[in-house]
Amino acid sequence: MAVILPVSTSSGVLASATPKVEDLSSLGTSSSNEEISTGLSAEAHKAELSESGNILSVTWSIQNTGSSGVDFNWPSGKSYMYSNPSHYSGVTITPSDQRSRYHPVMNGESECLCSGDTSLDFKERIEPGEKVAYWSMFSVPSDVDTITLEIPGFDPIEDIPIS
Known about the structure:
The protein is mainly beta. It has strands at residues 6-8, 14-16, 28-31, 40-49, 55-64, 70-71, 92-95, 125-126, 131-139, 146-150, 157-161. A hairpin with an 8-residue loop joins β3 and β4 (40-49). The protein is globular and about 45 Å long.
């Protein structure tokens, strides 16, 4: 049995550091749109707003539909100076109003509050047929009700409802 360690922010929001894809439903899928992501597909599973109403935890996954293993270590962000660029800080969201793009929250050590090599089930390499779950946390206005999830290398996943 795997141990699930929560990640906590200063606002008291918890996110599972090891979401399991077999426990998640689908809110939308996306195909590769770049050569680097050929043979992969993306899927959104959860978008949960914190009790305080301003921190959004998004669970998403990548599946290898190809015939060989793929290194999935390239969707890091270039907009902010996260201390560990191997985290998936390039994953962003846009609320349905399309006015702003949100990048993952950064903690006091300049680390992205998103999946990365500190997660227990972190996988940089995805084997054929394997699906791996990841997560990202965003600070958003409390009136956001749907989002578009953008994962570098994939078409956007639109109209994801927030619960």
